[in-house]
Amino acid sequence: MSGEEVPHRAESSEARAAAVSDIQELMRRKEEIEAQIKANYDILESQKGIGMSEPLVDCEGYPRADVDLYQVRTARHNIICLQNDHKALMKQVEEALHQLHARDKEKQARDMAEAREEARSRLLGSNSPALPQAFARVNSISPGSPASIAGLQVDDEIVEFGSVNTQNFQSLQNVGTVVQHSEGKPLNVTVIRRGEKHQLRLTPTRWAGKGLLGCNIVPLQR
Asked: What are the CA-CA distances from residue 139 to residues 16, 114, 152, 156, 157 (Å)?
């Protein structure tokens, strides 16, 4: 993580906290408006259960005497204004929530990108263990031979053949001696193949072809 990312993340967290605070304030105002609307509806209910659309005159066209016309008209006016305010406020809440979700989505995408970049940097920065040095190479293998059955392939570079390795290898006679003394016994063979290390189990065995392995090995220049 770079030094520039810390202030950036802090700034993002502060912006989100401010957005949440704004939404909470909008919700508080929403509850206030809803309470005021209810209070005005309660006034209408107290006036003979009159609602928002019942006539305020009697059948002869005179103002009703059984209700407080001023209270009813004021309550109706307040309700209409408050409902308009409520509608506008709900639009603000919806927009604020949308922006908050968009900010969260953007932050999530940014965090994922930073995590991938960090993992990539760590992978590139890590020192992969160096491959061991080989002392011989396989230049031919007979089909059906013990070497072929063990999975040995042409151009495999040998770094370990039984007890023989790069440190103690002197000549191919070392390998021949190990093979002669290991007939019928599995040997650990380590090879480098296309830049990767492979572990094999090779058992020197008499077969239809020549020798106990059925492959040809040549030394590498060191």
From this structure: 66, 47, 11, 8, 9
Q: What distance, in Å, lies between the first and last C-alpha atoms of the chain?
A: 43
For 66, the token pair is: 């059984």
Distance CA 44, CA 51 (A): 6
**Which residues, listed in sequence order, are joined to residue 192 by a DSSP beta bridge?**
157, 197
pLDDT score for 107: 81
Consecutive H or E run containing 124: helix 69-125
What is the CA angle 43-48-50, rounded to 5?
70
How far from the centroid of its chain's Cα atoms is residue 158's Cα? Answer: 40
Q: What are phi and psi of 217, to 5 degrees?
A: -120, 135
pTM of the model: 0.45
**Block residue for tokens 């305010």:** 85
Q: For residue 63, what are the β-bridge partners?
A: 57
pLDDT digits (tens, 9 = 90+) for 115-124: 887 777 776 6
| Rounded CA separation 6/213 (Å) | 62
Structure tokens belonging to residue 148: 């072929």
To the nearest 5 percent, what fractions of the chain are helix, strand and coil? 50, 15, 35
Q: How far apart are CA 211 and CA 102, in angstroms?
A: 72
Say which residue the tokens 């209270």 belong to.
71
Centre a 10 Å sphere on the Cβ of residue 8 and count the other Cβ atoms it contains.
Answer: 12
What token pair was written down for 111?
A: 């965090």
CA distance 158 to 136: 5
Residue with tokens 């995408």: 109
